Amino acid sequence: MKKLFALIVLAMLTTLYFGYYQALEDGDIETILFVKKHPTLQMEFYNIHANDGEIRQVEQLTKQERQWIIDYCWYRLGIHTELNTQNDVETCRKK
Q: What's the CA gap between 38 and 29, in Å, rounded?
C-alpha cells in the first residue's frame, strides 16, 4: 500500500512540475523535457523558438498561438507577459 501511495505521489509531482515541447533538431523531431517554474497539469507546451524558423510578427499570431507562447513563458521561464509587442516574443526565447 505504501508503494502504491508513493507511486501516485511521484506521478502527481511529475505531472505538476515537468513539461515538454517538440523541437526540430538535425532533421529529427525531439522531445525536450524541462522543469516548470510554476506547477500546472499542462505537460505539453509550444516553444515558438524551438525550430529556428522565421518568427512571425506578434500581430500575425492567432489568439491560440499567443496563449501557447504566454503559457510557455510563464511555466518554462517564469516570465509573465501579455505578449503585446515583438520584444515580448523575443523575451520568451530560452536563454
A: 26
